[in-house]
Amino acid sequence: MTKHGYESGRLNLPFVGIATFAKKPYVENWDDFSADVAVLGAPFDFGTQFRSGARFGPRGVREASTLFAFGHAGAYDHEDDATYLGEDVTIVDMGDADIVHTDTVTSHANIEFGVRKALAAGAIPVTIGGDHSVNIPCINAFDDQGDIHILQIDAHLDFVDERHGVRYGHGNPMRRAAEKPYVTGLSQYGIRNVSSTAKDGYDAARNMGSDIQSVRQIRKMGIEAAAKRIPKGARIYVTLDIDAFCPSIAPGTGTPSHGGFMYYEVLELLQSVAQNHEVVGIDLVEVAPDYDQTGSTSILAAQILLNFLGFIFHAKS
Prior knowledge:
Layout: E1 37-42, H1 57-65, E2 75-77, E3 82-84, E4 91-96, H2 104-120, E5 124-129, H3 135-140, E6 148-153, H4 173-178, E7 183-189, H5 199-207, E8 210-213, H6 215-221, H7 223-228, E9 235-241, H8 263-276, E10 278-285, H9 296-316
Parallel strand pairs: 1-4, 1-5, 5-10, 6-7, 6-9, 7-8, 9-10
Antiparallel strand pairs: 2-3
Helix pairs in contact: 1-9, 8-9
């Protein structure tokens, strides 16, 4: 086979091969692996109140992530003069948690099982949803990991306690998280316009330790100031709902809300978090690829995840 410079073997273009996350190795045996990052798909969308379709989010984000899989020697960023996600960072793809249709309890339990296996392997778990209810089992899995603070980047507060007996839908995850004794508080950024949470939910969130900031409030104070509002020294779990972004750049989601963040606002916030905090877990949710025929929403999701992981491990080094 022809050899050019330091490269040999297959060119391995993005459209070739099996679409694991960033074309990283697939791990089938969850009891026997170690990695810095373990990606888990959570293709569950039975918690939605409007448009379903986020069950195809993990597939969409994985396929989009192959676009950024050229990294034979990591990804060099000339603005930061830094190389991100070099060969020293080990990322694996665990595949998907098993989902049982119409059975929220079993499906969530299977997601929680996968996140626990990632943590047991010493990896940062990165869960790709799925609707935002998949955050509930993700946070459950941290019950033996020490105190965490949650940074939620989202259009909606998701702080409903119970509505017609529903406690584990995609309007409930931040309320369920705030109830955990090991969740020390929440920074809820991007919340705007008409929300799925009523005023009593906002009052409860603030009483339970939430700092709620809209897109306009964050733009007024600036990203650096918003990042500094996150408690110093806190270990951070980040839950990122793709509808935090303006639907002009991320239309592929079930509950789009205009007036959202643009790409660099979220990127710079996450870079600051990575530089100033230990990030212990991530989920990215509510990508519903069928509502965006351009594929841009999935590409945005993959790009933000890979950049964030790059920032995390560059800060560690």
